[in-house]
Amino acid sequence: MTAAAESTVTFDGRFARELSELAVPWQAEEAPSPELLVLNDRLARDLGLDPGYLRSPEGVRLLVGNHVPAGATPVAQAYAGHQFGGYSPLLGDGRALLLGEVTDKGGRLLDLHLKGSGRTPFARAGDGRAVVGPMLREYVVSEAMHALHIPTTRSLAVVATGRQVRRDGVLPGAVLARVAGSHLRVGSLQYARATENFELLKRLADFAIGRHYPHAAGAPNPYLELFASVVSAQADLVARWMLVGFVHGVMNTDNMTISGETIDYGPCAFMDAFNPAAVYSSIDVSGRYAYANQPVLAEWNLARLAEAMLPLIDGDQEKAVAPAVEVLGGFRGQYSQAWSGGMKAKLGLSGDADSDAASALVDGAIAILKDGPVDYTLFFRNLGKAARGDLRPVRGMVRDLAAFDAWAERWQALGPDAELMDSVNPAYVPRNHLVEEALSAATDGNLAPLQQLLEAVGSPFAERPGLERYAEGAPEDFGTYMTFCGT
């Protein structure tokens, strides 16, 4: 495969060109012995990239940033952010580079971004590197989220660098190549606001409108409409997280996108047993980003976005506060509507079902889950079997049988749609014990468990023979689970 294969894709440096104040030109650290571990062939083709080329020596070098294709202008992006509630005026891509933008086959402009590509001027005390395990975690979980129809960055490839990286011990280094609608964050606008450069803030907001919400350009107040669009996108996104039991783990404002895509899968996890207080991040000692707190923290982050955008909403910032607060006030209703509708679908209840009865059944289902350690994913999947007449699997999961039987009688009276349930309740998610098994094996050079896990979660709603263990809950000896961001 020759370099001609890449010429079918035109790389651009639009962010670097149009927002140079937020872009530091930089080159990736040289990988001494890059080796492709996993490649997303389907995504590559959607981007117009030849998978065969990406497997070639030059293609692998492109995926770690050591071969810069024509038109690409690698930059480290500047942004600010509230991290665990504390404001940092300058964060930025400490171990990442925006390689450039490409236009996919559908005509959508997308970022191609590298994570773990070495120190940048924003690295502070970090080494700028990443290791195999966390990069493969992001690959698995982000692709699972995509298959679950949840807006997300996508993973194109993970490449081992051939360099050993020191963490608690010495681990093999890796670079993740990922794709996103953009990497604009709440923290991007916070940074622009902190510069007190109104022209830069306006240019950044215009860039976001053109990239993600072009309808806002024609609104009476385009910037208020931009804010409203981000509020709506995030309300829907977080509701989708909650519906599948996903815990992001580090919802800082620099990890909330303007596009409404899930980004930065560090200490993330899917719940096993339902637990509103579930926390999997080793650094979240206070439980700030626990499962049940995610909607509240999303709203808090959006309030910080509103603060950054006030000068755009009205030249008199005091006058900008009231419309911004009004828009932000819609978040809870939008989130509740998305979550409630999603929960009713998980119970197989159509829009024609009695609203009050359906809402009471949703409340009853949550009460059953809270009553004891009930596997969240398996509970709803087994309810699909109950909708077909077999109550035994789900009934065997609960503690209070009398309460469950009473609830189930009311639920069945509404005629739940089993096919609807199976279309929204996954059989397969990246269960934590399976993720750890796959990452451990891959770190030791065995990629087979990773590929098997990807096969399961890549089509999560269709049960298939031979994948039974991927639908089962965690073994009793799995114990307390903690994740680490890999820095």
Sequence-ordered SSE layout with sheet pairings:
Elements: H1 14-18, E1 23-25, E2 35-39, H2 41-46, H3 51-55, H4 57-63, E3 75-77, E4 81-83, E5 86-88, E6 96-103, E7 109-115, E8 130-131, H5 132-147, E9 154-166, E10 170-180, H6 186-194, H7 198-212, H8 222-244, E11 246-247, E12 269-270, H9 294-313, H10 317-328, H11 331-346, H12 355-371, H13 376-387, H14 392-395, H15 401-413, H16 418-424, H17 432-443, H18 448-457
Antiparallel strand pairs: 1-3, 2-9, 4-5, 6-7, 7-10, 8-10, 9-10, 11-12
Helix pairs in contact: 5-17, 5-18, 6-7, 6-9, 8-9, 8-10, 8-11, 9-10, 12-15, 13-16, 17-18
Write up what this structure looks like.
The chain is of the alpha+beta class. Among the domains are: 3-180, no CATH class; 349-416, no CATH class. It is built from 18 helices and 12 strands. The protein has helices at 14-18, 41-46, 51-55, 57-63, 132-147, 186-194, 198-212, 222-244, 294-313, 317-328, 331-346, 355-371, 376-387, 392-395, 401-413, 418-424, 432-443, 448-457, and strands at 23-25, 35-39, 75-77, 81-83, 86-88, 96-103, 109-115, 130-131, 154-166, 170-180, 246-247, 269-270. The strands form 4 sheets. Strands 2, 6, 7, 8, 9 and 10 form a 6-stranded antiparallel sheet that branches. Strands 1-3 form a two-stranded antiparallel ribbon. 49% of the residues are buried.
Counting H and I runs of at least 4 residues, what is the number of helices?
18
The termini sit apart by 35 Å
User: What is the succession of H and E elements?
Assistant: HEEHHHEEEEEEHEEHHHEEHHHHHHHHHH
Given the C-alpha coordinates, what overall shape results? globular
Rounded radius of gyration (Å):
23 Å
Structure summary, number of beta strands: 12
Based on helices, strands and strand pairing, what is the structural class?
alpha+beta
Helical content stands at 40-55%
Enumerate the spans where pLDDT stays under 50 for 5 or more consecutive residues.
none
Amount of beta strand: 5-15%
Average pLDDT figure: 95
Largest sheet: 6 strands, antiparallel
